[in-house]
Amino acid sequence: MLRLDEIAKSFGGLKALDQVGFQVQPGEILGLIGPNGAGKTTLFNVISGILHPDSGKVFFREQNITGLATHQIAKLGLCRTFQNPAIFEEMTVLENLMAGYHLQGRSGFFSAILKPPWERKEERSIRERAMEMLSEIGLKGSAQAGAGSLSFGKMRMLELGRALCSHPELLLLDEPAAGLNHNETEELAEYIGRLRSRKITIIVIEHDMSLVMDLSDRIVVLDQGRKIAEGAPKEIQRDPAVLKAYLGEEDWIKSLRR
Length: 258
Ligand SMILES: Nc1ncnc2c1ncn2[C@@H]1O[C@H](COP(=O)(O)OP(=O)(O)OP(=O)(O)O)[C@@H](O)[C@H]1O
Ligand SMILES: [Mg+2]
Known about the structure:
Largest sheet: 6 strands, mixed
Radius of gyration: 19 Å
CATH topology of the largest domain: Rossmann fold
Strand content: 15-25%
Order of helices and strands: EEEHEEHEHHHHEHEHEEHHH
Bound molecules: adenosine-5'-triphosphate, magnesium ion
Shape: globular
Number of domains: 2
Structural class: alpha/beta
């Protein structure tokens, strides 16, 4: 589904990514972990086209997508969410989701908001599908609420729902559980687990170790821009290089051993 070949990205003198390479198989949930500043988000930015790598290549379903623009990559079926939920706070919850559907529809998002008559039919079907997605993510009751008035956890679900509207084959989730309470985290884990049955391939960056270890088929660990380990969750928890990278972060080590 995805192959990264020797990705490098520097900011000034800082090597944020240093020859990072790995593959993701179709249908797999891959956990991407590593201490703060390890380069995880930068890697998502490179995969999704927000940043272009200094060197190295990104292949999505065998196609070289290195250097393509974000909207071109999204159209190919590769979507992401952000560490800080990227939602349109001034719009309603329903409108936020409809924006997701317009990514794959014929009519552009802004023309759809203005609603010329020839696009009303497409608009209706998009509205219906958006309402279905709202019930799926538990936000049906908030359809007409301003997206900016949602709790942080619900904003995250909304952003995830919007990413799913465009029917991605590969979904990149950047710390989906950050800022969620215990119940919200459990609901999210269950929901992400269910996406597996829809054959959506997922890469998830997450600091909540029990969540990422339970959810992932495989884990890749970054530290200071380099891949230091790759393997099954059980192997990763015992990997000396991983434990060393997390040295001094007692909570992390404790949760790794849970
Ligand atoms: N646009 C940028 N300009 C300059 N430096 C950047 C930029 N983006 C990231 N960095 C730096 O690159 C390094 C990797 O950052 P990145 O955000 O990818 O880490 P991360 O693994 O996602 O960390 P966290 O777990 O804290 O989110 C950090 O040292 C960061 O300060
Ligand atoms: Mg990050």
